[in-house]
Amino acid sequence: MAREKRMAAPGRTERSNGLRGRLMRASNAVAWVEARFAGAIVVAILALLLANVVSRAFGRPLIWTDELAVYLMVLGAFAGASLGIANRQHIAVTLVSDSLGPRLRARLARAVDTLLLALFALFAWMLWNWFDPVGVISADSLQAYSRASFNFLYQEPTTTLGMRKVWFWLILPIFCLTGLVHVLARFGTVSEHAQ
């Protein structure tokens, strides 16, 4: 993982350094879990696809493996995207930032991080409206909630697995939370490879 440096801001207090340190430790711990989770997902997808090939060779295909593999790919993609935010390893065009001096590069990093924070705030708002935890808790039942709101998030089953899709969709609020932690922990930092 590339080390990141923070441009020293005048008047920075020990308390904010302590908060940044706690956020960085939390972000690093989350990134560690995400890396292992994404690795386990890749192994599970490989095992599922191999099981499907073998079962088809014997004329008894496991019809649910394809659907589960797709859902696992989605889970792995969101875990990997969050890990990419943590390590600042997403694809980026650095033509402008590479030509800037250290101060302007730090300002650009803060502007990008501010946009990311705004994006995650918008995403959190959308997820809150979609998952509607207050509406679900206050409803008599999930069926009554779905009928009243036309939100079938909690009712819709997968095609072959027989599970509710909400269990896979829970990766969205998890991604929103972990991505937010990563952005806050590294807010305004400039990675070494960009310097």
List segments where confidence is low: pLDDT < 50 over at least 5 consecutive residues. 1-15
The average pLDDT value, as a whole number, equals 89
Number of helices: 8
Structural class: mainly alpha
Order of helices and strands: EHHHHHHHHE
Helix percentage: 55-70%
Question: What is the molecular shape?
Answer: globular
Q: What gyration radius follows from the Cα positions, in whole Å?
A: 21 Å
Biggest sheet strand line-up? 1-2
Distance between the termini: 15 Å
The tally of domains stands at 1
Membrane topology: Multi-pass membrane protein
GO molecular function: transmembrane transporter activity
Main location: membrane
Keywords: Cell inner membrane, Cell membrane, Membrane, Transmembrane, Transmembrane helix, Transport
Question: Brief overview, please?
Answer:
The chain has 195 residues and is mainly α. Helix content is 69%, strand content 2%.
Structural features, described:
The N terminus is likely disordered. The protein has eight helices and two strands, in the order βααααααααβ. Helix 1 packs antiparallel against helix 2, helix 1 runs antiparallel to helix 8 and helix 2 runs parallel beside helix 8. The protein is globular. With 195 residues, the chain is mostly helical. A two-stranded antiparallel sheet has the order 1-2. The protein has one domain.
